[in-house]
Write a sequence for this structure.
């Protein structure tokens, strides 16, 4: 017996000695060297989620708590990181130089672009007759423009109609919760001033008197800059973001700040920490999409024809696609980010969400331009709008990575196929392309957006851990497992992705794919308690978004159809850097395909109601 004890002691001591003094503390395993700026393979490699567990309610509470323990730090987080492939870039040797911003800035601040000097009246459409009783269409900027200037209705009338509709929307079951903060006195004050200007034939811009909501992630006087949380923005703002200031200078009536997914860190549009969850007007038992959920829902419900969202990982294009409206993620640096919390500043942009492509173009032209407060905006060329409704697309080459295109729900693929066929019928040429390293691109984006957020929110993770939604803490906790090598390699992957896109855009004019991989997911029991952790659905919603955010290219979501439940489906058009006019022209043609749009279940024709 003593012999075995002696052997066991020697053996145990040898193992301890091995781990303490011989075995390396960490190992990256097998490393793969990538050829600088050359794809190793054009084979489509985007993976499906390998985390089938959908958690909410008590289970999600438990997972959140465990993630903050030593067991979570040592076992759960590394396991989760492996399952979602977050360690992929750690296994690569990338000789490419990292690109930390997808745009190049000048050294000296330019003079601010004056939005009021942008002449847009020429793009207003002729006045339209009211639709027939069995026909539905959204109101547009042109509809408000003619109604105000003809004297049929005033901005005051519209403001009253909007605020009454907003109150009704929050009395519904379920409550729509589209706007988180509003001030009736402030709204009516702006509307009265606009009415006086228009009556005196001195409007400030085509937007004078038109109601608009701005996402809560932008600073808007006099509201709190909460970013969808219960603990940020405790004081009222004293200075507008640049975008809010431009809209205010143009006479737009800001009816409030719109709901959003907490911190913008999610694609569902759920919010359990602050203001409740915005619902989808096409079916209030489904999500509006995130993170600009309130902005998308406000436009789709008819509360306002235009809204402002932000897009760090599809947060404009996803809710636009799910809510049946038009939304554009501009080129990185096209629209000033001054006055937004820099949560993920190398991938996020601000942009318009509207009822039609023309209005998206008008609002983007008004908001774009150089801003001394935002260096990323300094290098942009002017945005020139022309030929917004071309008769044909003859000579245009549309690039499609068909394997990626069809990596979506069958109903989404079917409707998007119809959209592509329609564009081909209008004269466009379809060109098959292959976009290399999809999975590496997706992981690079996930690492950048989550680690950049974590770097700004470390204090919140310490002091407000249980104030955050459980799914938010899990994502930020996963980001904490990333290393400096991961972050730098993610930026090296950005270099590669930008290079690949430059080569592709030498062969094609635009790239087309679905806006989302599925239609709006249903709100499930337990989701509204502490949040929801559903990796599979999250990746389906975001599948076609990261390419634009990582590289900085613009992307436009346009509605093309509906699924069997009458939930909207959108197609996305992406173009080269600074070529928003190109994708808007294609979008305007695509818009003709959907001759009759379906009316949302929750819809307020505030312009019609104000007229009576």
């Amino acid at each position: 017996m003593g012999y075995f004890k002696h052997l066991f002691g020697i053996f145990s001591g040898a193992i301890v000695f091995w781990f303490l003094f011989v075995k390396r503390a960490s190992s990256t395993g097998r490393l793969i060297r990538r050829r600088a700026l050359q794809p190793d393979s054009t084979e489509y490699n985007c993976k499906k989620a390998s985390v089938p567990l959908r958690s909410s309610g008590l289970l999600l509470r438990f997972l959140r708590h465990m993630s903050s323990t030593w067991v979570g730090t040592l076992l759960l987080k590394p396991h989760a990181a492996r399952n979602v492939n977050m360690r992929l870039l750690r296994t690569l040797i990338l000789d490419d130089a990292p690109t930390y911003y997808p745009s190049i800035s000048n050294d000296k601040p330019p003079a601010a672009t004056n939005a009021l000097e942008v002449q847009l009246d020429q793009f207003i459409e002729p006045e339209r007759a009211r639709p027939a009783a069995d026909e539905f269409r959204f109101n547009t900027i042109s509809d408000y423009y003619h109604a105000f200037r003809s004297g049929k209705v005033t901005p005051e009338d519209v403001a009253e109609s909007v605020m009454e509709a907003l109150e009704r929307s929050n009395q519904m079951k379920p409550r729509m919760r589209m706007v988180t903060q509003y001030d009736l006195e402030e709204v009516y004050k702006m509307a009265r001033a606009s009415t006086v200007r228009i009556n005196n034939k001195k409007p400030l811009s085509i937007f004078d008197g038109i109601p608009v909501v701005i996402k809560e992630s932008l600073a808007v006087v006099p509201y709190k800059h909460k970013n969808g949380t219960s603990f940020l923005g405790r004081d009222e703002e004293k200075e507008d973001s640049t975008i809010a200031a431009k809209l205010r200078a143009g006479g737009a009536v800001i009816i409030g700040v719109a709901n959003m997914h907490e911190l913008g860190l999610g694609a569902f549009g759920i919010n359990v920490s602050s203001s409740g969850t915005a619902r989808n007007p096409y079916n209030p038992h489904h999500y509006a999409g995130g993170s600009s959920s309130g902005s998308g829902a406000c436009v789709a419900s008819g509360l306002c024809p235009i809204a402002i969202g932000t897009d760090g990982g599809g947060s404009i294009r996803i809710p636009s696609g799910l809510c049946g409206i038009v939304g554009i993620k501009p080129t990185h640096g096209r629209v000033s980010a001054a006055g937004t919390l820099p949560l993920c500043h190398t991938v996020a942009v601000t942009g318009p969400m509207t009822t039609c492509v023309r209005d998206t173009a008008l609002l983007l032209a008004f908001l774009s331009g150089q801003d001394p407060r935002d260096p990323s905006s300094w290098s942009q060329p002017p945005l020139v709008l022309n030929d917004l409704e071309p008769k044909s697309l003859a000579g245009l080459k549309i690039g499609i990575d068909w394997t990626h295109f069809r990596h979506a729900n069958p109903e989404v693929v079917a409707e998007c196929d119809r959209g592509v066929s329609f564009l081909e019928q209008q004269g466009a040429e379809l060109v098959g392309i292959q976009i290399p390293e999809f999975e590496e691109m997706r992981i690079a984006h996930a690492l950048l957006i989550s680690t950049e957020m974590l770097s700004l929110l470390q204090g919140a993770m310490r002091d407000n851990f249980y104030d955050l939604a459980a799914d938010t803490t899990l994502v930020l906790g996963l980001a904490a497992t990333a290393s400096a090598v991961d972050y730098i390699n993610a930026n090296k992957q950005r270099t590669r992705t930008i290079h690949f896109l430059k080569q592709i855009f030498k062969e094609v004019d635009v790239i087309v794919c679905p806006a989302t991989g599925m239609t709006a997911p249903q709100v499930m029991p337990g989701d509204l308690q502490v949040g929801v952790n559903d990796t599979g659905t999250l990746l389906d919603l975001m599948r076609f978004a990261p390419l634009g955010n990582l590289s900085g290219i613009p992307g436009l979501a346009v509605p093309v159809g509906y699924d069997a439940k009458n939930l909207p489906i959108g197609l996305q058009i992406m173009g080269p850097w600074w070529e928003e006019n190109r994708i808007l022209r294609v979008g305007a043609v695509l818009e003709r395909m959907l001759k009759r749009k379906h009316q949302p279940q929750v819809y307020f024709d505030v312009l019609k109601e104000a007229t009576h």
Q: What stands out?
A: The chain has 21 helices and 17 strands. The first strand starts at residue 32 and ends at 34.
